[in-house]
Amino acid sequence: MNDIVLLSPIWLSALTGLLVMLIDVLAARDQRPGYLGYVTATGMVVSGALALFLWRHGAALTSPFLKGVFSFGPYTLFFGLIVLMMAAASLIIAPDYLRQQDADQGEFYVLAAFSASGMLVFVAATDLVAVFLGLETMSLSIYAMTASNPRSAVGAEAGMKYFVLGGLASSFLLLGTAFLYGITGSTNIVDIGNYFMVNPPLGAAILPSFAMALVIIGLGFKIAAVPFHFWTPDVYQGAPTPVTVWMAGAVKAAGFAVFGRLLLTMFHANTFMHIAFNYKLVVLALALLTMTYGNLVGIVQTDVKRILAYSSIAHAGYILLGVYAVGTSGLLDSSVGFYLLTYAVATIASFGVVTLMGGSMNEDTSLDRFAGFGRRHPLLGLLLTISLLSLAGIPPFAGFAGKFYLFKDVLQSNVQYNLPVVIFALVNFPQITGLNSGVGCIKRPICCVIFTHLMLDVTLLRLRSNGLNSLHLKHFLQPLSSNLSGNLGP
Amino acid sequence: MNWNIVLAATIKWVFMVLVFGLGVAGILTWVERKMSAVIQDRVGPNRASILGFRMLGLFHPLADAIKAFTKEDFVPDGANRVLFFLAPLIALVPGMLAFAVLPFGPGDNLVIANMDSGIIALLAITSFGIYGATLGGWSSNNAFAMLGSLRAAAQMISYEVSMGLNLVGMFMVFGTLSFSQIVYAQGHLLGGWLPEWGIVVQPLAFILFMAAALAENKRAPFDLPEGESEIIGYNVEYSSMRFATFFLSEFFEVVLIAAIVTVLFLGGWQIPWLDPKGIAGGWIRVLQVGAFVVKTLFVIWVMMLARWTLPRFRYDQVMKLGWKIILPLSLLNILVTAIVLAML
Amino acid sequence: MSAEMIVFWILAIGAVLGALAVVLPPFGRNPLHGALALVVSFIFMAGVYVQLSAFFVAVIQVLVYAGAVMTLFVFVIMLLNLTPEELAQPKYSWYKVLSVFSALAIGFIVASGLTHVLVHFHAASIPATFGNAASVGGVLVKKWLFVFEFSSILLLSAIVGAVLIARKRRS
């Protein structure tokens, strides 16, 4: 019984998909299936409520049946909630957009629900087999959703690209799993970590390093870290915008949750410290590459969706920096969780506005089309500006706090090169991507600059009067993170 | 590796496949023609004779074989020669191999490979039959043959699913994947008088399996891949011995499917209401193998009747029947079986 | 060399040759030949599984991969029926050199790692029921029940996705 309760967010979201499928089949033929989007979103919200309930009362529930395969600790539930929140938001903005594109089909929402349940499995899994199953369920649905608009050749191309590269990435992860199983005799990530703790890889340790590289590559595709990012701009641009929200928000959050959990649990830093191939250094290299590339290439883009795609690449770099700095206590105690939260909210908002506009703009989201946008739609313009500024990390918006604590964590952690890394990240013009599009939106650069300055001044004033601690947004997370110690294991 | 086991298996295989399977398949070519003649009120084959003895036309299979061997072996221009040569063999060999897991009688001696998951193995082996038909049509470099092979591939894939699903109910009832154990389990009497045959405990699965097996075998009323009377099939470019091999493989599969149906649904070698202790020595074995052969021949007879009394389906009807009727019914059968088993 | 080793080497070499034939000329030039080479490779792999006492996995390998999945591959290749001109391969010889090089590098890594493992390898004794249908089924419906059931969602989403992309538009 406990297992059914613990698994309830997962099976409920899968059940939502089945229910939507039934409604779609039984409903009248001539009816627009848009309302199914709201039904699905409701299912996601209820799943989220169940996850919250589990957060409160789930600690007492133990299930020997799920032990070693799934974990429903706060780590899982926190990222599960982010995923479900992003999913519900994407689903709420989807129906209008799809109707404008004449691409609304009931199957879209079925796939969305299945994808969400796959993400929950992906996030909750503590066994590589379940990780792979969740990854595939999540991805397969998204491939089809990407190509779901039958009138869009770009969408079909994006779907194909994502499918082929995603399949390749999955096979990397699978091969890594096979090697890890061959080395340690287990697919459970805690067992694998313990094995490496007891038998530290000596010398070249070529096979563990190779397996680790395969796992990093496989997950690096999903979070769009830089050498594995090639699909991102094309797919983000070609996909229907609600699906882009889905990929930039939910998939990325789920990907980072699993990335952090797998690396920190299986390749515990101490184990690999004395060999050349240290996962921390790999993650650091990925982080620096990713943020630099995302920010630099983002500058020259002229399409809003592409700009946001590069912005999401750059953000992956910052989050990777957080993963680099994280200690043994795990991701949730670090600022990565909070950073992801701010990123998720800002991504939903910015892509949401683009979605609302994209439908009526006949899917032309070039920067020019947004000229005078703030005047035509003042509220939406304000929302877009705020979310872009937040993405850029301008105070007083949440994105600033996210970056602030991320850098603080990196500085305070005892990882190598923490100071130069932070300086590098700071001079990496994180705001350029955001500002570029912000400027384009309002077409009144001065307005934007004044606005920013105002905000900055307010922030500085508050800083002077209250000191740094008043900005400690981590307090908001405190009730969430009180019982987090040692939550990585099952 | 024990070479005696290999030798014994080879001898058994030669006996079962070459003597029983191939022999029956050869005679079937005559039976089918004679039977169709009776059904259609004709005389049927009666010309071939040796020294004036006609023997009801029984020499016709022999004459056919001689004809097949001596005719010109034609390879169409532009054909993929390797695959063109291989295709008939690929069609024939899986059927021959599949006999290895079928028990002809009780014990380990009357079955070649008494495998723990024999039924799955049999499905695995027979699934290769598709390659014969599809490659045969593709390699002929003929548009009509190609269309025929596409029809064959689609049809066989579709019905293979239902075939496998219909067996799931049997697995659930008897709790085994082994042919031998299923036959042993069918020796029980329900309530002291009704033999616990597959056809009794899984009647729906029996009907659906027969239909799916007929379609899998590409015989009327599902003979669209060949469509010998008007639409042209995958083997249109084949002649002489290669065509005969395709032809033979079809009859071979008839024997095979009849044997599978016998083993799974008709109690295999079991003779109900017969007390084995009442019969002396090895004669009980002979009787039981005889029962198996008789049951198999009966199923073959039913399949032939179906062929000559039912008109052919249209292709969309074939697909509809497979996916919209047989498949859902098979799933329903599994569900009902599970519920009944859970309640018992 | 024992008989089992001889059989193993036949199976292993067959599997590797089949896999190579999938991509290398002359078979790799023609997609259908490549697909059939893959079938051959799968069958030899199933033989290796049998030698590892994993009978059920071997049978499923033949049934699912060689029998069903590859049939669909062949079916699709036949439906497309591309001409040799359409299949003309790009002449990026630089890419070819690079791919051969990286394949060799990965092969070296794997081979050296595996030999390292094999040195410390001790054959474990396995129970008599290892690898038969009952034990595989027991594992699937006990510890892995939810994962096993959830894989149906994976398959269902694949089906729904295929329908969504491939079907005709409703008017």
Brief digest:
The complex is a heterotrimer of chains A (490), B (344) and C (171). Chain A is an all-alpha fold and 490 residues long.
What layout of secondary structure does this protein have?
The complex is a heterotrimer of chains A (490), B (344) and C (171).
Chain A lengths: L1 H5 L1 H19 L8 H23 L16 H27 L5 H19 L3 H19 L6 H32 L4 H10 L7 H18 L8 H7 L2 H26 L2 H4 L6 H21 L4 H22 L10 H25 L12 H4 L1 H15 L5 H15 L5 H9 L4 H12 L2 H22 L7 H8 L9
Chain B lengths: L2 H37 L20 H11 L10 H18 L19 H9 L2 H11 L3 H32 L4 H7 L3 E2 L3 E2 L2 H4 L1 H14 L23 H26 L17 H27 L5 H29 L1
Antiparallel strand pairs in B: 1-2
Helix pairs in contact in B: 1-10, 1-11, 2-10, 3-4, 3-5, 3-10, 5-6, 6-9, 6-12, 9-10, 9-12, 10-11
Chain C lengths: L2 H21 L7 H21 L3 H26 L12 H27 L13 H9 L3 H22 L5
Find the CATH topology of the largest domain in chain C: Four Helix Bundle (Hemerythrin (Met), subunit A)
Give the overall shape of chain B, derived from the CA principal axes.
Answer: globular
- What is the H/E string of chain B? HHHHHHHEEHHHHH
**Helix-strand category of chain C:** mainly alpha
**Radius of gyration from the alpha-carbon trace of chain C, in angstroms:** 21 Å
Shape of chain C: globular
Radius of gyration of chain B over all CA atoms, rounded: 21 Å
Strand order across the largest sheet of chain B: 1-2
Q: Largest chain-chain contact?
A: A-C, 43 and 27 residues
Query: What is the CATH superfamily classification of the largest domain in chain C?
Result: NADH-ubiquinone/plastoquinone oxidoreductase chain 6, subunit NuoJ
The residue-averaged pLDDT of chain C reads 83
Can you describe what's shown?
The complex is a heterotrimer of chains A (490), B (344) and C (171). Residues 430-434 and 436-490 of chain A have low confidence and may be disordered. Chain A is mainly α and 490 residues long. Chain A has one domain (2-481). Chain A is built from 22 helices and no strands. The radius of gyration of chain A is 22 Å and the shape is globular. The radius of gyration of chain B is 21 Å and the shape is globular. Chain B contains 12 helices and 2 strands; from the N terminus they run αααααααββααααα. Chain B has 344 residues and is an all-alpha fold. The longest helix of chain B has 37 residues, at 3-39. Chain B has helices at 3-39, 60-70, 81-98, 118-126, 129-139, 143-174, 179-185, 198-201, 203-216, 240-265, 283-309, 315-343, and strands spanning 189-190, 194-195. Chain B has a two-stranded antiparallel sheet with strand order 1-2. Helix content of chain B is 65%, strand content 1%. Chain C is built from 6 helices and no strands. Chain C folds into 2 domains: 3-131, Four Helix Bundle (Hemerythrin (Met), subunit A); 132-171. Chain C is globular, with a radius of gyration of 21 Å. Classes of the chains: A mainly alpha (490), B mainly alpha (344), C mainly alpha (171). The A-C interface holds A 3, 7, 10, 14, 17, 21, 29, 65-66, 68-70, 105, 107-108, 110-111, 114-115, 117-118, 121, 127, 129-130, 133, 136-137, 140-141, 143-145, 147-148, 150, 159, 179, 182-183, 206-207, 210 and C 109-110, 112-114, 116-117, 143-147, 150-151, 153-154, 156-158, 160-165, 169-170.
